[in-house]
Amino acid sequence: MALSIKTLAASLGISLLASSFLAPNLAHAEGEIRIAEQFGIVYLLLNVVRDQQLIEKHGKEEGIDIKVDWTQLSGGAAINDALLSGSIDIAGAGVGPLLTIWDRTHGRQNIKAVASLGNFPYYLVSNNPHVKTIADITDKDRIAVPAVGVSVQSRFLQYAAAKQWGNKEFNRLDKYTLALPHPDATAALIAGGTELSGHFSNPPFQDQALKNPNVHVVLDSYDLLGPNSPTVLFATEKFRNDNPKTYKAFTEALAEAAEFAQHDKGAAADTYIRVTKANIDRDELLKIIDNPQYEFTVTPKNTYPLAEFMYRIGAIKHKPESWKDYFFQDAKPLQGS
């Protein structure tokens, strides 16, 4: 199926960006940072940082020249593996992968979040007219997620299942999920004719899919948790401690990018198209990111309910007392939740 889906993606003009692991480098001097992102508008702050060379700018203010390396991966499992192997310094992924790796490295590498990338609703969409709610999903359906059981989309689906059938049934729908990058899944859903009938997506891919009259929303993450920050950036405690100037330049760059994106949506849209080379109409993109439900901010919002849920079902062993347990508290502490 994977080959045919990639062919569909190409024919539909949906951007597929190549990604590769950087060679592991477990230690490096101050003045180098390696960042891994994934697909979608939720990574727009990183697009702005990259386009405007904001890390380099703030590095010079700290008196250092910073070399920035960028790579693109798909799925929280791949992102977490890259961070643990030392291939990257900053990981971009959902709150689900963050909590998994925070729990796994508790008392050792002490990986925590650096910042949120904003607040965005994620939709579970389907081209199966019989699937109106998650209760209608059967063994005839297959749902694409970035990483099975680990991605924030998978955790949202488990949260919804627990709400529907009780905590013991949290993984009831896992058997219907498969790992696929967002561009590939979107192309398959739009075209139809494959085993894939659903996709727990993110913007702009969910919006592109919904332009097809055969595709509809089954579940909205905001209906589950309210407005929340689904995607974050995280790092090891060692990188933060050993590279204070580089780390500070990165956080200052993110904050500047958030201000830019939130207050100039047109320029933000241009940046996304320019950096990602996405084949999307500018007016369509601007309409998506101008949605009042979207907020570009480094401050995390409403992440703790998912953390508490993951502890309750045994997905993590350490129970965070608050969101501050899995977010670094820097010189300018975040005021989040």
TrEMBL record:
Q: Which UniProt keywords apply?
A: Signal
Give the species. Answer: Pseudomonas helleri
The signal peptide here is 1-29
Which Pfam families does the record match to this protein? NMT1_2
Superkingdom of source = Bacteria
Which protein is depicted?
A: ABC transporter substrate-binding protein
